[in-house]
Specification:
The chain is α+β, with helices and mostly antiparallel strands. The chain has nine helices and 16 strands. Helix 3 (103-111) crosses helix 4 and helix 4 (116-127) packs across helix 5. The longest helix has 21 residues, at 359-379. It is globular.
Length: 380
């Protein structure tokens, strides 16, 4: 744990690390974001609604992973291949009509070789058709806060009403990485063989940069060449989205520029662990006098390199906490400071339940609180 429960004051000003402007890319839109803190390190037109091409399949794969994680389907479940799925144009896994294919193989076909046929097959399996599956996709996009996204199919094949943005795709990628980590290794798979046909992953950075382990490429004439990538170095994971470049090589090179910038000039620190006790304020009228308060998820912060000594924390606890208090109840706010700037906020929650005390305890606390408040008014 890096901080005490009070603000960490700096008695001597610390010189700030010089951070150059982010690189300008030969692309329509882009964003660079830390996967743990969510901080955006660079962006350009990141909310512009653009055709996402096969980046769409990130949501298709996410919904398959969600169903697997919830136990609604199993990896070895077999999916019938319809003529509709078999006839879908564009990139293919090469599944055959009227055959049965496992969910595990279809998921690899979607992620590794960008199979449109595999995407339609799982859409039909999970929702009964591609149109109702697109409705599911949009519901989850809304749940995840993807405000500039609308899906009409599971593949990314062109449609004027099918669009997303660099920011939304980065947010989706963050959830893929953090919500279902057991499935994430598939995004680093360099090739996939099905029916004696071996196809490579089109993400060239998987071969060039050992820190890159995902996520998805996309291309149509309308979208240009697109790439969502993620890389991890020294326990820092970045997500980059580059949309609308001119070639496969360009999308790899422009993505590499973003990742190099982020890793060179920033670092991500783990400040608090989930469940860490940050303070124990007084509780009135309860079976116990003190309440353990902390955070209900890990807290990370991304800062310019060499400025971690300027980090501090401020706890703002709700005044006059009174029992009963339920575990998980929000009782205040944690503010993370970089110098004088607030760079992050996180709810503070009760880490335990405290029941209401007996009648005598409540009366005694009322008297004690009265004199405590009176003292604060006179001498506070």
């Amino acid at each position: 744990m890096l901080f005490a429960s009070q603000v960490l004051a700096q008695s001597v000003p610390v010189p700030q690390t010089m951070i150059p402007a982010p690189p300008q890319l030969a692309a329509t839109s882009w964003i660079l974001m830390d996967a743990d803190s969510g901080r955006v390190l660079a962006e350009h037109d990141a909310d512009e609604r653009l055709p996402p091409a096969s980046l769409t399949k990130l949501m298709t794969a996410y919904l398959v992973e969600r169903e697997l994680d919830r136990g609604n389907i199993q990896p070895d479940d077999t999916v019938p291949v319809s003529e509709q799925a078999w006839r879908t144009g564009g990139s293919k896994m090469f599944i055959e009509v009227d055959t049965l294919v496992s969910v595990a193989d279809l998921l690899k076909g979607i992620i590794v070789v960008s199979g449109n046929d595999a995407s339609v097959a799982v859409a039909e399996y999970l929702a009964g058709g591609e149109r109702p599956f697109a409705d599911m996709m949009n519901q989850h996009a809304s749940r995840l806060g993807m405000h500039n996204t609308n899906f009409v199919n599971a593949t990314g094949l062109p449609d004027e009403n099918h669009y997303s943005s660099a920011r939304d795709l980065a947010l989706l990628s963050e959830h893929i990485i953090n919500d279902y980590p057991a499935h994430y290794a598939t995004y680093a798979q360099k090739e996939f063989t099905y029916a004696d046909i071996t196809q490579p992953n089109r993400n060239r950075l998987l071969w060039r940069d050992p820190s890159v382990d995902g996520l998805k490429t996309g291309w149509t004439e309308e979208a240009g060449y697109c790439l969502v990538a993620s890389a991890e170095r020294d326990e820092m994971r970045l997500i980059s989205v580059v949309m609308g470049t001119s070639s496969e090589e360009a999308r790899a090179q422009e993505t590499q520029k973003l990742l190099s910038y982020g890793f060179r000039y920033y670092e991500t620190l783990r400040l608090y662990d989930q469940g860490a006790v940050l303070t124990s304020p007084r509780v009135w009228g309860g079976e116990k006098n003190e309440l353990r308060v902390g955070v209900d998820e890990d807290v990370h912060m991304t800062v310019p390199r060499s400025r971690n000594e300027e980090l501090g924390a401020r706890l703002d606890i709700r005044a006059d906490l009174t029992a009963p208090v339920a575990a998980g109840e929000e009782v205040g706010t944690l503010q993370v400071m970089l110098g004088e700037e607030v760079v992050g906020e996180q709810p503070l929650v009760a880490l335990e339940s405290i029941a209401e005390g007996g009648l005598f305890k409540r009366l005694f606390d009322q008297v004690q609180r009265f004199f405590s408040n009176l003292y604060d008014e006179w001498f506070g």
